[in-house]
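Note to self: user wants both folds in one dump. Writing first protein now.
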Amino acid sequence: MTIPVEGPAPFEAAEEGVAIEPRWPIALAILCFIGITLTLRVAQPERESLGPRWLVPALEVVMLVALLAADPAHARERRRWLRPVALGLVGTLVLVAVLSAGRLIVQLVQGGKVTNSPGSLLASGTLIWLGNLLVFSLLYWMLDSGGPLARYGHERQYRDFVFPQQASPELAPPGWQPHYVDYLILGFTTSTAFSPTDVLPMSRWAKLAMALQSLLSLMVIGLVIARAVNVFR
């Protein structure tokens, strides 16, 4: 099933939509994750990490700077170079999330230092699960229907995700469009329910991305809990 876009002319909608979605919720989410990362680094220095310990926080800071540069007032004029940079950063963070989850799973299966410490094991699992949630929510927000500006400009005829407010327009204000918080909840439900809940993936990439997120979350939660139960005995 495909749901076409209905709305005003692309140019008019884009001009009206530039200032509609603020960037501060995304910046706040990244800042919270950076805070959690640094807190766990101090509390559990032996926890599992991928590459240098500064790698993930550095990527997050660069992503935060890119988001600040993409403020709605200048997003359109900077779109040509800013979107590829942001997509590259999000893609790198997704790769880091996948590799981190894979490394932790290998440690859990083969046994390792981090898996013998309940605190380090839970800290590693929590950080990887939260990182999984954050990076996939950013991925969905960046790619759905061509990105924020394209969504408000109605530049694409078909959607990658269909939210309840889009499937049933009578339940939402006229011209409703998803904001980052909606994609954050999409990432949360995918990581906890391991399947679509109220938001339906329509395109193939959206289905594959949700399947990958669900698989990573399922393996991390299942194996970490199973190992933690044994360690606490």
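First done. Writing the second protein, which came from a different request thread.
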Amino acid sequence: MLSLMIESKISLNRVTKYLLAEEVQRDFITRNNSLNTDTAIKVQNGNFYWLTEEEKQKKKEKEKEEKKEQGDDKIDDQQESVNITSHNAPYRLVLQDINVEIKKSSFVAILGEYISFIVNNFLILNSVGSGKSSFLYSLVGEMKYDATTPPAVELNGDVSFVTQQSWILNATVKDNIIFGNEFNEKKYQDAIKYSCLQSDLDILINKDETEIGEKGVNLSGGQKARVSLARALYRNSDIYLLDDPLR
């Protein structure tokens, strides 16, 4: 009984944290499937930043103080988790003055330190911590921006994002790949083939029917990455964002 209560409390805390999380603002992203353009991705005035946990806490405390001064001590959960995009919010730009256009059917790699230009389909950045992952997150609306100078992101087609930290369901390998979509044998086999997952399936006891533990505990890092890639390939999107796929 005690263990059940502890597990229930942990689950409740997770659900609470999820429900009180900030709303993701994607109003600066334009999505369409126009055949009259050869542009796949276009970013204009790209200025994005992350907030640290300390900065988030400071903002919440400031909002509470402002409410008290206005004579309203009650702050509901929705107000408390307001999106932080005001001009006066404390932040340091991670991505600054990003203006880039990527054509359809292009294969673009992101390397280096500061995004400056594209050379032979290679977007120039630096090494660790230079903003490569942040650039990909900015394309799907996961980063903060200054509301006074909002960016403009155009995505022409469906997007699949394979993150650096693989997201794995506590389900079979097959279920992780199909991910609730209608099963198609050819698409499924192609996804396994092009993600180089077949050799991993061959060593699993029940092949693709092998149950994966929570957070992929019984898979290696590379195997989890390949399962995530296979899932993205099975979705058959127009645009693929791959964060550190060769790790």
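Dump finished. Worth passing along: The two ends are 43 Å apart (CA to CA).
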